Amino acid sequence: RPRGPQPQGLADSLSTCKVLVVGAGGIGCELLKNLVLTGFKNIEVIDLDTIDVSNLNRQFLFQKKHVGKSKAQVAKESALQFCPSASITAYHDSITNPDYNVEFFRKFMLVMNALDNRAARNHVNRMCLAADIPLIESGSAGYLGQVTVIKKGLTECYECQPKPAQKTFPGCTIRNTPSEPIHCIVWAKYLFNQLFGEEDADQEVSPDTADPEAAWNPEDTAARAAVSEKDGDIKRVSTKVWARSTGYDPIKLFNKLFKDDIMYLLTMDKLWKKRKAPTPLDWQQLEVSPNEEAPASGLKDQKVLDVWGYCQMFQDSVETLSSQLQEKGDDAELVWDKDDPPAMDFVTAAANLRMHVFSMNMKSRFDVKSMAGNIIPAIATTNAVIAGLIVLEGLKILSGEMETCRTVFLNKCPNLRKKLLVPCVLDPPSANCYVCVSKPEVTVKLNVQKTTVLSLQDRILKERFGMVAPDVQIEDGKGTILISSEEGETEANNNKFLSDFGIRNGSRLQSDDFLQDYTLLVNVLHTEELERDVEFEVIGEAPDKAPPPQSNQEEVNSITNGNKDSAQPSTSSKGRHHLRPLTSNSAAVATGTKRKYSETGESSAKRPRTDQSDAADDEDDIVALD
Amino acid sequence: MAATKDSKEQKYDRQLRLWGDHGQEALENAHVCLINATATGTEILKNLVLPGIGAFTIVDGHIVSGEDAGNNFFLSSDSIGKNRAQAATELLQELNSDVSGNFVEESPDKLLDNDPEFFHRFTIVIGVQLPESTCLRLGMVLWSASVPFLICKAYGLIGYMRLMVQEHTVIESHPDNALEDLRLDRPFDEFKSHIKSYNLSIMDKKDHSHTPWVIIVAKYLERWLSEHDGQPPKNYKEKEAFRQIIREGILKNENGGLEDEENFEEAIKNVNTALNPTKVPTSVEDLFNSEQCNNITAQSSSFWVMLRAVKEFVYNEGSGSLPVRGSIPDMIADSQKFINLQNVYREKAMQDAAAVSKHVESLLQSVGKPPESISEKDIKLFCKNSSFLRVVRCRSLAEEYSVDSINKDEISGLDCCCFRFFSYLI
Question: What is the pLDDT of residues A117-169, one digit of tens each?
């Protein structure tokens, strides 16, 4: 076999060194191809996902016949067909599984991320820091992409820069007073789970009687009770139980959701003093007055149907989903998937009917899908470029030339220096990072009387600080164990409040993730003044602010001096889909709302980083390196 | 048929969100020719076959060598000794059954000797690792046939690419951050009377807070113009004063505090862009002045015929403005008010497109072509995109090699072409 352009020493080390590829999606497929062609012989690849039809436009190791199979496994088999001499190990598994401990990571000379979500990126970042293995991080979105290198002690880690929190919507906006299509889409996704999936108390869809804005007078209660009786008193049973009792009758469901519940909302008249009140829909009335069908051209998904069209879509999808549920057996649950047609139809129909009820303009299935699924556009070309850059950075690392590594951005158009690819010097680790410094510490503002142990674990330690299985000990001199990662040991604490354990202002909690070999000291700052729907705040981080500008841009082939690179704004194809912005200036919302990425120039500041990550649930090549 | 369309929509979902259905249509109508199925060549074709071009044809007279099998993912050791075009076609075809793969086991030079017109049929020809002489010969043939020619070379970690095309016209350029076309500074009659149909001072609270911001700005602008000799707010100070006037229009509650009127907030936020004067962008103005626009012949492509018609429209019915685009952004409003406003713009856009269509008809007639040779649908699309039209022109390879232009400009001087070549050195 011919040698590539590498010197003999490097070629030898390629054939012996072991590398790990995390993710076998858009970037992962391209990367596997590049690795085997470059002469890497020992490759392990892990991905928990299975192949979907919408992957086939770019994940070239997969074909139609592979739909539903393990990405890692099929990627391995396809790559071996082309290059039988390589040795590839595939894991159809989550990288956060404790089997992949620090020892596992230490087997590799190099780890390459080709991931799609922030949680997994955080985790691999920590594992590589703990194992002290160099990590190449990557991401892509549409025509844009980025590759960067992370090495403990030398560079910023993945979590050195604060990232914008994912925007959430107050419960009463979703349940009572939606004002934007996204509120209706979120509601419809919750409704899907309430009816067919895993019921979650945080995903209620019925009118919220505790809405502080509604502030009922006692005399209103009579009116409320009257309506309440009519709607079958569904308050006392769960939505799912009620739906089951009707045999998932689409018309009964429809009339409850879009007529009775709305009439109930109308009784909360304080809500409608300043707002336009919703208009209930009635199946029987709609049925007898069918609207004229306006046949539009273009793709079917991109048309906006009339109300009756969505009624029918609602009916059809409820019927399909309930029979799917029935086939699965008694306690079965469906999982919402944007690429599952009946599930997507259901959300499209329910969201649009609610939009109509609340006087919003309805949206096409295509648009609803983009917002509901946080879809990030993806093409083979971008992924191929990014995967190529990953290998180039990898070769530098393996040649012992870590100092020449760069973070590289792929632009949509050449910048003012006529560069499509923009390399930037890597930053040193941040002294304020709560992950890669030697003794990580954070201060969290919360109300100890209102925060439960479970929400400390799930919302703060897992979601916010990226731990997988935390153990928490109170530094109270007694070493009280608050949370144990051993199953069954501290479950009894879950619904108790922090104050029940003597935690107060100034308390220190030592949180430990054994798998990640990571300890975080949490200082508690008690407060009773948090905004509505805010559970806690992390001090010293302005999550919605961009990282401070740093002038470390490499002056490569500088043609024009002091000329700002105008970063190309993100792509939107005729307002249909809007890219999540490559910026941390704006809170990344899972909405598909149009935002531009800031015009930060390469000469004055580091290009803003991307975030979309966690928003997107199962895209494989979603960007963004932070 | 419907089923295949559905499954295509599903398969191509992630890219449709990037280039839309017209972009996809253009891709599906494309027939791409690749000369030389090298590692670079097959990589390029892979990235075109996956998103679903209509067809490709590989032209390659080489036999697959051990080196090819080693560095090309789409050639295996089994294919050593076979023709390279054929072997690569087989594997590339597997990537997407919607694409028709073809191959010609011949060198491009032979084809140029025997049948140069062979290359006319392609949407684009991509030549990889071609010797200079072949590039020049083929470049000449393709230049005169107006077929785009992309030359690529790769050596180790260095690469080069160069596009040659006389002219490439773009109707849908998918601009980022395009300004809306609202005509607040030059309201058309129908819009004027629509504005009149609103009276903010006698509305109830609900209607007041559900009036689209475009109407609010238009109302207050009318007032401003009457108080300022017909001059709109121009500088920051005046715009700020204008915003203040709008702010004062927000309803007060019983206690004298401001009501929460998001539509007014939206109006205030949009003052800056909404007051941008409506004008023909200079890039479009330049196209109006070009030779191809002013000299319409039977050979003129429909792009130029439509451009000329739009120009006629601007100088006549449009009184200096392009056809109304007809779309408005999402805004806070109740459905009925929003739809009414949308219809005002839509109907005007239809009228304008109809006027342009008349010009197209007479232009076609003047060069002896039937009026139906350009469809209404195309004219509408053209009008909608008339602010964003683009024309890309490159220098021919022959010109680049000619004595006159040698050293005239630096290697980066291909400014005429938007696809400048990029190289990335590590």
Answer: 889 999 999 999 999 999 999 999 999 999 999 999 999 999 998 877 666 78
Measure CB to CB from residue A142 to each of B18, B157, B335 and give the nearest one: B18
pLDDT for A221 equals 53
Task: Extract long-range pairs of A214-222: CB within 8 Å, 24+ residues apart.
Answer: A214/A176, A214/A268, A214/A270, A214/A271, A215/A270, A216/A268, A216/A270, A220/A267, A220/A268, A220/A269
Q: How many residues does chain A have?
A: 626
- pTM for the structure as a whole: 0.81
Question: A291 CB near a chain B CB, below 8 Å?
Answer: no
Closest CA to B227 of B250, B245, B251: B245
Alpha-carbon gap: A535 to the closest alpha carbon of chain B (Å): 26
Radius of gyration (Cα) for chain A, nearest Å?
26
Do the Cβ atoms of B73 and A83 come within 8 Å?
yes
Q: Which residues of A are catalytic?
A: 172
pLDDT above 90 for B2: no
CB atoms within 10 A of CB B396: 18
Tell me: the pLDDT tens digits for B61-96? 999 999 999 889 999 889 999 999 999 999 999 999
For residue B416, the model assigns a pLDDT of: 37
Nearest to B84 by CA among B58, B116, B108, B109: B58
| Beta-strand pair B158-164/B168-170 | unpaired
Chain B: give the shortest CA distance to residue A243, in Å: 31
Look up tokens 């925060």; give the residue. A451
H-helix or E-strand spanning residue A508: strand A508-513
Distance CA B323, CA A125 (A): 54
- CATH 3.40.50.720 residue window(s) in chain B: 1-166
Q: Is A120 annotated as belonging to a binding site? A: yes
Closest CA of chain B from A101, distance in Å: 33
SS3 call for A524: strand
**With contacts defined as CB-CB under 8 Å, which chain B residues touch A378?**
14-15
* Cα A163 from Cα A159, distance rounded (Å): 8
Q: Do A568 and B206 touch (CB under 8 A)?
A: no
DSSP state of A142: T
Residue B138 reports pLDDT greater than 80: yes
First to last CA, chain B: 49
Instruction: Write the DSSP string, A44-77.
Output: EEE---B--GGGTTT-TT--GGGTTSBHHHHHHH
Q: Which residue of B has its CA nearest to A419?
A: B422
Name chain A contacts of B381, Cβ cutoff 8 Å: none
- Interface contact flag, A300 B9, Cβ < 8 Å: yes
Q: Residue A416 above 70 pLDDT?
A: yes
Hey, which residues 252-281 in chain A have their CB within 8 Å of chain B? 274-276
ipTM: 0.85
Q: Is A433 annotated as a binding residue?
A: yes
Q: Is the pLDDT of residue B232 over 60?
A: yes
Q: Name every chain A residue with its beta carbon within 8 A of the beta carbon of B332.
A: 179
* Chain A residue closest in CA terms to B334: A359
Class of domain B1-166: alpha beta
CB pair distance less than 8 Å for B17 and A577: yes
Give B317's contacts (C-beta < 8 A, 6+ positions apart). B352, B355
> Residues A72-108: pLDDT tens digits?
999 999 999 877 889 999 999 999 999 999 999 999 9
The reply, when asked if residue A56 is annotated as ligand binding, is yes
